[in-house]
Amino acid sequence: MSQSDLSVSSVARASTAEELDYLQHLLQRAMTPRKRLLKATLNFLVLWGFSLLGLLMVSGIASYLAQYSQILTNFLALPYLAWLSVIASGCYASFSSYRWLQKLDNPYPLILKDINTQQVIEETYHVQAVTRLQEPEFGGFIYCLKVDEKAVYVIYDYESQSNKKHVFPVFETLILNRALHSGHYLSHQFKGQPLVCSETLSLALPPDKWPLPETWLPQTWSNLKKHVTNAS
Questions:
Q1: pLDDT at 167 over 80
Q2: 231 band by pLDDT with thresholds 50, 70 and 90
Q3: Is residue 93 assigned to a domain?
Q4: Whole-angstrom distance, CA of residue 40 vs CA of residue 52
Q5: In the chain, helix, strand, coil percent, each to 5?
Q6: Cβ distance 30 to 111 under 8 Å?
Q7: Is 209 exposed, middle or buried (0-12, 13-18, 19+ CB in 10 A)?
Q8: Is 122 helix (H, G, I), strand (E, B) or coil?
Q9: How far apart are CA 167 and CA 159, in angstroms?
């Protein structure tokens, strides 16, 4: 079951100007088809170069051993062996680059489709509880909202980094605005009764492992405290 299945309601509407601007920002950060092709080409050339280097090393060892083996001598004397080896290494580099390209994240066409269709999905969730994390350098807060045991949404309070007295109110109804095709969450709103933050946890994780803003946390709610306070 996905997080979207937990929504109380889901309604399609037209994108706002701010949401389209944010999609344009995401599009600029995404890798264009031309850049993807360039990276794939560079990946192919690097793999092919290392493959040829490996062939040269194997060829040198085989030439040394050939003096002790007539079979190996005859094999190395086969016509077109060198060309076949080069072609085989090129095929290997091509196949490996293709597989690498298939695994590479490619949000560009979906974001572009979101901009063209100009539609978002408003998903409404009931927030059961809220915990906030405090990062050590500037003291800013990251809010984790429990929708379900396996559905915890992350929101950054950016103003808290510079304003220690900033109040970030959280309410029982969370509305997430999700791009129709790419699935990016573009913005959020709160409604209903205010919620009290259950606790504040000191974030011990390195910055590259912090929860990402406007995303669902990969950890469960019950494992949240152990995960974020464990520096190892």
A1: yes
A2: low
A3: yes
A4: 18
A5: 45, 25, 30
A6: yes
A7: exposed
A8: strand
A9: 9
Res. 22: pLDDT tops 90: yes
Nearest to 220 by CA among 135, 148, 131: 148
Is 77 contained in some domain?
yes
Residue 60 inside a domain? The answer is yes
Angstrom distance (rounded) from CA 232 to CA 228: 10
Confidence band of 161 (pLDDT split at 50, 70, 90): confident
Angle between helices 33-66 and 108-117 (to 10 degrees): 170
153: three-class secondary structure by DSSP: strand
- Last residue within a domain, chosen from 103, 129, 160: 103
Instruction: Output the pLDDT for position 24.
Output: 94
Around 199, how many Cα atoms within 13 Å sit in the side-chain half-sphere?
A: 7
pTM across the whole model: 0.73
Burial degree of 147 (CB within 10 A; 0-12, 13-18, 19+): buried
Residues 159 and 60 grouped into a single domain: no
Please state, in angstroms and rounded to a whole number, the distance separating the CA atoms of residues 18 and 200: 31
**pLDDT recorded at residue 79:** 66
Rounded CA-CA distance 103/106 in Å is: 9
